[in-house]
Amino acid sequence: MTADLSLQPRHAEVYNALHGGKDHRCRDAELAAELLRIFPGAPEAARANQAFLRRAVRELAMAGYWQFLDLGAGYPVEPYLHDVAADARHLVRLVYVDVNATVCTHLRALCRADGVRVVEQDLRKIDAVLDDPGLHEVINPQVPTAVIAGAVLHFLTDAEAGELIGVLRERLAPGSLLVFSTGTGDGLPAEKVAEATRLYTEHVSPVVLRTRAEILQLLDGCPLLPPGLVKTYQWEPDHPDDVTLAVDDAGTPHLYAGVRPL
């Protein structure tokens, strides 16, 4: 008998449950609870990731970027990225991409502004994403684009991540950037990392928690924009005290973050 995939926990819903959202089901919340048992600090990591993405979008908009492509966007969390970009720069274009139909419905409900579109597509099929008519309604491929891959690279194999970066580099205009964050097991007890990885792989999909060195290798050794590859809360914090709020301990996982030229 074939398993009913609709009964399995899903990426976006589990992540939503981890950071205290309401857009998830019982089975998603149950897995999130198991992950919280292993790493009680997971909600802090999720919040730090969202804060990093907002800061990066704001900084790039202020630097002159006005086209954004958010791959694996997930459920919207206020303040929304298109609003963050618009607050920093008057005219912006942003496309949210997600394979989850329910997520896309939520995104479409709030993205009624001009210059904002939602594409329902798997980011692994990046050529299909870039060819989507909805994307071309607002994004000009001849203009540099800031691509966002927040907390998604750890769901890709090395080959898949390499292909994603390669296609983006080939098809987007010179000057385009990849804003990314990705999970790691660095600094955490190996047995807890193994247990969390096993749970997620069994109930949702495989996950690859790379070391800092492995992430840099995945990026082809390409120099990142300052401050380089750092923990999410260390990337251009709004206030120096922000760094001290995210304490590294055995219960607080974190994600590495950076901005890579394409």
Name the features:
262 residues, alpha/beta, disordered N terminus
Description:
This protein is 42% helix and 14% strand. The protein has 262 residues and is of the alpha/beta class. Strands 3-2-1-4-5-7-6 form a 7-stranded mixed sheet, with helices on one face. Helix 1 (11-18) crosses helix 2. It is globular. The N and C termini lie far apart (45 Å). The relative contact order is 0.15.
Describe the structure in brief:
The protein is α/β, with parallel strands linked by helices.
User: What is Rg?
Assistant: 18 Å
The overall average pLDDT, rounded, is 88
> What percent of residues adopt helix (DSSP H or I)?
40-55%
**What is the makeup of the main sheet?**
7 strands, mixed
N- and C-termini, Cα separation: 45 Å
Number of strands: 7
Main-sheet strand order equals: 3-2-1-4-5-7-6
Label the overall shape.
globular
- Strand-and-helix sequence, N→C? HHHEHEHEHHEHEHHEHE
Report the β-strand fraction as a percent range.
Answer: 5-15%
| Helical run tally | 11
Low-pLDDT segments: 1-5
Helix-and-strand structural type: alpha/beta
